[in-house]
Specification:
The complex is a heterodimer.
Chain A: E1 5-16, H1 24-29, E2 39-50, E3 54-58, H2 65-72, E4 80-84, E5 90-93, H3 105-115, H4 120-134, H5 149-162, E6 167-171, H6 179-194, E7 199-203, H7 207-213, E8 216-221, E9 224-229, H8 231-244
Chain B: H1 2-29, H2 36-56, H3 64-86, H4 88-91, H5 93-96, H6 104-131, H7 143-167, H8 171-184, H9 192-195, H10 198-207, H11 209-221, H12 229-260
Classes of the chains: A alpha/beta, B mainly alpha.
């Protein structure tokens, strides 16, 4: 029972190469394969997260944190290596699932929910709760393109926060909407995270948040794992390292 | 791959249907005449074509308005889906970059939306058949497998356009030109067999799937003739094959789309 893993990552490599957009003229003119610029964002990392564990990922900009997170959400495919989610449902919190601008907020709730793997009925059951949490009032029946950016992100957050998936990925602890909603969403997020059954992966630069929330912290540097373990020790070392460099 | 397709279909089919419905609804929600446009638009086109090609260029095919309307209905479905599939991934960037879904589901949604509009046109065709009192035979039932083949072919080619549309910036220009060429080689406004010189008309009618489908459709609906069975089977197989290959292509590459757009 103890070692039940929710996420197992083995030798994950993700690179950005040879994927530049091209036009027909360009490809006709460049018969020769030009040198491929191969940027390896994540260099063969392995780690696992137990069920109910909260993992924090820290590292300087461009160290591959977000790429790792995106590949966990299976938005990016690994170039080699494997990611095993053991059949858990997963969602990227805070930025939500994208919306179709021409459709109403209500329709987008249903569509987003379905994309997260819920049935239409399940989403409908939670619909009112989401609308209430997002504080959109009558705007919920208007096309999303008429929303202000605050309303947009409030709705996005509410959908992923209320429709709870087994694994939640958080890219930078969010600050959505006005002061009041910020507080509310932070509280909601904390309650989501502290649920014992939920596995959470947080990417953040905020040392105190990570210290407060995480069971384990992983420090990434240039696409590799520099250290992984107890939050306190690693975060202290990280702060020291960042100040030196 | 087939297994993955099956589980994905189970999970995303309802999404595609709901998304198609919502798209149709949002399309008409803000316009003045609402869903009437789905009827008005093709009907007006038909009037224009019937006037230009019937009166000005003297088209002599029996039941000329229906003749044109069938051609135009099928062509518009094909053309619209082709053009839209090129930009599909880019257009759905907000979704594609935040959650996983098999990218051909986007194409399915578009095919359904355009298919629904085609359905409205088919109802108009039924109305016209009654209005002109066209004598029907049982051969009219061939319309069903013909439509099925049309869906296969459109979806299959759409998969490829969706894939290459992500990587090649100016693909839509090329697609537009090719479609224009195809338009004239498909015979929407005239009967290819009668208007083009001898061996070529037959080549086009058999080698261009849309031309084949349109002329077969006209033959079975208006003129009571059964379509060419072997050709029908051949195009069915081709359609199925490109669908399978197209879906496989998307499965193989879809997760790198996000890195590009």
């Amino acid at each position: 029972m103890e070692d039940k893993y929710a996420i197992e990552v083995k030798d994950l490599v993700i690179s950005y190469r040879n994927l530049k957009k091209t036009s027909i003229k360009q490809s006709l003119l460049n018969f020769k394969r030009h040198k491929q610029d191969n940027f390896v964002a994540v260099k063969g990392i392995s780690f696992s997260v137990k069920e109910g564990e909260i993992l924090g990922i820290i590292g300087k900009n461009g160290s591959g944190k977000s790429t790792t997170l995106n590949s966990l959400a299976s938005i990016f495919s690994p170039d080699s290596g494997t990611i095993d989610l053991k059949g858990h449902s997963i969602s990227l919190l805070s930025i939500g699932v994208g919306f179709q601008k021409e459709m109403t907020g209500r329709e987008n709730i249903i569509l987003s929910g379905m994309l997260l793997g819920f049935s239409e009925e399940q989403v409908r059951a939670k619909e009112e709760e989401i609308i209430e949490f997002a504080e959109l009032g009558k705007f919920i029946d208007m096309p999303v393109r008429t929303y202000s950016s605050g309303m947009y992100s409030k709705l996005a957050f509410s959908i992923t926060a209320i429709l709870e998936t087994d694994i939640i990925l958080i890219d930078e602890v969010l600050s959505v909407g006005d002061q009041k909603f910020k507080k509310k969403s932070y509280k909601k997020m904390k309650s989501l995270i502290s649920n014992k059954d939920r596995t959470v992966v947080i990417v953040s630069h905020n040392i105190s948040t990570l210290m407060e929330l995480c069971d384990t912290v992983m420090w990434m540097h240039d696409g590799e794992i520099k250290k992984i373990g107890e939050p306190k020790a690693i975060l202290d070392e990280y702060v020291e390292f960042m100040e030196k460099n | 791959m087939f297994q993955k397709f099956q589980t994905d279909m189970k999970r995303y089919w309802k999404y595609a249907v709901y998304s198609a419905k919502a798209q149709l609804k949002s399309e008409v929600a803000n316009s003045y005449l609402n869903w009437l446009w789905w009827v008005l638009e093709p009907f007006c086109y038909m009037l224009i074509y019937a006037f230009i090609f019937g009166e000005v260029f003297n088209g002599k095919e029996p039941y000329f308005p229906i003749f044109i309307f069938i051609g135009n209905t099928i062509w518009v479905f094909f053309q619209k889906t082709m053009v839209q599939s090129v930009r599909l991934v880019k257009q759905n960037k907000p979704i594609v970059s935040k959650v996983y879904l098999p990218k051909y589901v986007l194409l399915m949604t578009k095919t359904m939306v355009n298919g629904f509009k085609m359905g409205v046109c088919i109802l108009i065709i039924v109305g016209m058949l009654i209005f002109y009192q066209v004598p029907l035979t049982w051969n009219v039932l061939y319309a069903i497998p013909l439509l099925f083949i049309l869906f296969l072919i459109v979806f299959g080619i759409g998969c490829y356009l969706l894939h290459y549309g992500v990587f090649i910036e100016d693909l839509s220009n090329v697609v537009n030109i090719v479609l224009r060429l195809l338009l004239y080689m498909t015979g929407i406004f005239w009967d290819i067999m009668k208007r083009l010189p001898a061996p070529y008309n037959d080549y086009i009618c058999k080698g261009n799937p849309i031309a084949f489908l349109i002329s077969s459709m006209r033959n079975c609906v208006i003129y009571g003739q059964a379509p060419h069975h072997k050709l029908m089977l051949a195009w069915f197989c081709v359609g199925l094959l490109i669908c399978i290959m197209g879906i496989r292509k998307i499965y193989k590459n879809e997760n790198s789309y996000v890195k590009v757009i």
